[in-house]
Amino acid sequence: MGASIAPDSLDQYRGGSVMKSEAVSHGLLQDATAKNVSTGNNSIADGAFAHSIGLPIVIQNSGANVLIQNSTIVNVQFQ
């Protein structure tokens, strides 16, 4: 994580209608090997999120030597 933003730096955005969002991810996977591995199937059944609350996130991996990165930005506006 980088340095946090000072609260007074956000004053120009308070009470406004402008949204500013940025998610930056950097990943590197190199010289990776996988020997004698088994990979499979991933599945999500119908209705798996039927009663979910909040921000459901699913990260699936059915392989080997995989770099997974995830970012979530939530903009909330109260009116």
Describe the structure.
- The protein has 79 residues and is mostly loops.
- 0% of the residues lie in helices and 0% in strands.
- The protein has no helices and no strands.
- The protein is flat.
- The model has no long low-confidence stretch (mean pLDDT 83).
Task: Indicate the topology.
Layout: no helix or strand
Q: Summary?
A:
The protein is mostly loops.
Report the radius of gyration as a whole number of Å.
Answer: 19 Å
Q: Which structural category do the helix and sheet elements fall into?
A: little secondary structure
Instruction: List unreliable stretches of 5+ residues.
Output: none
Total beta strands: 0
Question: In this structure, how is the largest beta sheet organized?
Answer: none
- What is the percent of helical residues? under 10%
Approximate strand percentage: under 5%
Report the average pLDDT across residues: 83
Keywords:
little secondary structure, flat
